[in-house]
Amino acid sequence: MKHIVVIGAGQAGSSLVAKLRKDGFDGEITLIGSEPVVPYQRPPLSKAYLLGDMALERLFLRPQAFYADQNITLKLGQDVTAITPEARAVTLKSGEIIAYDQLALTTGSEPRRLPASIGGDLAGVHVVRGLADVDAMAPAVAQGARALIVGGGYIGLEAAAVAARKGVQVTLVEMSDRILQRVAAPETSDYFRALHQGHGVDIREGIGLDRLVGEDGRVRAAVLSDGSEIDVDFVVVGVGITPSTALAEAAGLRLNNGIEVDEFGRTSQDLIWAAGDCASFVHKGGRIRLESVPNAIDQSECVAANMLGGETPYVAKPWFWSDQYDVKLQIAGLNSGYTSVVTRRGEGVSVSFWYYRGDTLLAVDAMNDPRAYMIGKRLIEAGKSPDPEVIGDTSSDLKALLRP
Ligand code: FAD
Question: Which of 148, 172, 310, 383 is found 20 to 30 A from 64 (Cα to Cα)?
Fold first, then answer.
């Protein structure tokens, strides 16, 4: 009987094992994860769950019983410490050795942390990656507390939104010239800056953190790069993530901004596959890595089918979302290399920004405008690029653009 082992019991790992069974694999499946909980969705960690609006059970991707029903062995709270490709085996921290016929790595990513030399190890300094991180931080997110958010990317901004809604006095520092600089156009940055400022968040751009000041091992203040000092009760660090590749690297797998996989999801080692945040894959002639739920699901399902003998190349259809206050941002496509941005005003507060490279539509950021998002996504996936003038004209019928 064949044995498929999956390392990393998160979004991609859970989807991968479910798809193996769905496609009729009747061999042994073992899913191993460091965290002591059944696979869960992370997006609510910086949104509804942190706000206290979502029960723990609703985070779970599938009920615990699913794994037993599907005859999937779950090994939770267990780290894999080594892969030995020659022996086709993995070693757990406990010393247990598990043999595999095929192996998949869905190890996700790790949040960057502040170095201890600037106070990154003080109590009250949090990252937002796992359930344990958020459970540790949640009690501090209370009326009247003072918070510093380091980093104006989506995670930092979502944490700022929740904290502000809970009555926390929030200061957010972003070292770049503007929030969301790495991922979005100035138009989107302007939109979210105004939104946060409207909720009382003190956004400071072009300013970094110099160091944190502690008292009895707990953070008390922060010194910023402009020399100013602010008192804080807790700090949220949202300065990006790095793919979890240490295990793959030690096993001799080729890395390339993540674990390198071919179009089918196979790594440089026969019988070893990878998917999700940790995998870097071929996309439109280049190589990318996506940090999103849709990618984790689609890629791992494609890899599962290929592990069972399929030969379907993975074609990413990137999309993403973020919730801040009562605004839902939906993003379709990838904007890298854009040369212009067209604004389309929707009804009420809704607006969308359309990214073009020359005449080619690359991506859409839609704020409270699901229609613009949905049509933009379909246009991008169909390779259609409407005239920017039509997009910018609020009276034009977007849906008509989808007609052949
Ligand atoms: P993960 O879900 O991170 O799972 C990887 C698992 O592998 C982890 O549980 C890890 O502990 C385990 N692991 C790693 N190494 C080992 C080892 N050696 N042994 C055993 N286990 C190991 N995406 C969106 O599309 N929209 C959003 O709004 C959004 N919001 C987010 C908000 C937050 C706070 C976070 C943290 C992420 C958010 N994301 C969002 C990103 C999305 O959650 C990730 O892209 C997705 O979880 C990736 O899935 P994955 O399975 O690759 O990795």
Answer: 310
List, for residues 79-104, the tens digit of each pLDDT value. 999 999 999 999 999 999 999 999 99
Q: What does the domain layout of the chain look like in residue ranges?
A: 3-110+242-307, 113-237, 326-402
Ligand 1, residue 109: give the atom nearest the CA: 3
User: For residue 251, which amino acid is it?
Assistant: A
For domain 113-237, say whether CATH 3.50.50.60 is its number.
yes
Closest ligand 1 atom, residue 92 Cα = 19
Q: How far is the CA of 131 from the centre of ligand 1 (A)?
A: 11
Per 3-state DSSP, the chain is made up of helix, strand and coil in percentages (nearest 5) of 30, 30, 40
Q: How does strand 3-7 pair with strand 28-33?
A: parallel
Residue nearest atom 47 of ligand 1, based on CA coordinates: 11
> What is the C-alpha separation between 398 and 404, in angstroms, rounded?
13
Q: Is the CATH number 1.20.1260.10 carried by domain 3-110+242-307?
A: no
14 lines ligand 1 (CB under 6 A): no
Nearest one of 368, 354, 353 to 323, comparing CA atoms: 368
Residue type present at position 139: P
- Name which residue sits closest to atom 14 of ligand 1, judged by CA: 107
Question: Which atom of ligand 1 lies closest to the CA of 13?
Answer: 51
> How far, in Å, is the centroid of ligand 1 from the Cα of 61?
12
Pocket test for ligand 1, best of 19, 277, 324 (most atoms within 8 A of CB): 277
Whole-prediction pTM value?
Answer: 0.96
**pLDDT mean over 28-52:** 97
Structure tokens at 392: 């910018």
Q: Is the fold of 3-110+242-307 the same as that of 113-237?
A: yes
Q: How far, in Å, are 16, 35, 150, 161, 401 from residue 42 at the CA level? A: 17, 13, 20, 17, 35
- Give the domain 326-402 fold: Enolase-like; domain 1 (3.30.390)
CA geometry: angle 358, 262, 98, nearest 5 deg: 145
How many CB atoms sit inside 10 A of residue 372's CB?
A: 24
395 Rama class: left (phi>0) / alpha (psi -120 to 50) / beta: alpha
